[in-house]
């Protein structure tokens, strides 16, 4: 049998042979990890205006409650949650320890909020940009005008150039959604898509005015057809 080096004991010997993990495997390695409660995931519907705000929203969701005798019931849990500005649809927000409880010796699970943007009655979303359709009367498109246009921050005055066309896009800088991952922490843009709309009612005098305009303008909107056919 090989002799132990001087000033060594059996603990040093086993440490050199098997390492510290082997020395403590009978103690720390057998400790049972703390039980963790189940994570909960739920949808959170928010409006486009909420993505610009730093105010808290009140949410309610169901979690299981365990009684001392092992019975389970569901209770409603209510939280005030601050939604990060610039949050996007489909994004998941983690609230640590707000999920299923794990009992007195365990660790509560987490709550995951899956963001869902509610469709807006006026604005469509393209990345961080917003699109709004701007209806124009024929004379507004022909002569140009100034109008009050809605944005997520309130109304602004917008100038419509003369001889505007349906489908024409006018850009308003910095009135879109927050670019959360941008180094400049900026915002996207708002695009106004023009749409010429005819009046739904008419009368003889109006028709005469339209006819006089047609005679004076001598404009053929389909002139390019004759060049291609």
From TrEMBL:
Keywords: Chaperone. InterPro entries: DnaJ_C (IPR002939), DnaJ_subfamily_B (IPR051339), HSP40/DnaJ_pept-bd (IPR008971). It comes from Zhongshania arctica. It comes from the Bacteria. SUPFAM superfamilies: HSP40/DnaJ peptide-binding domain. This is DnaJ C-terminal domain-containing protein. Residues 40-199 form the Chaperone DnaJ C-terminal domain.
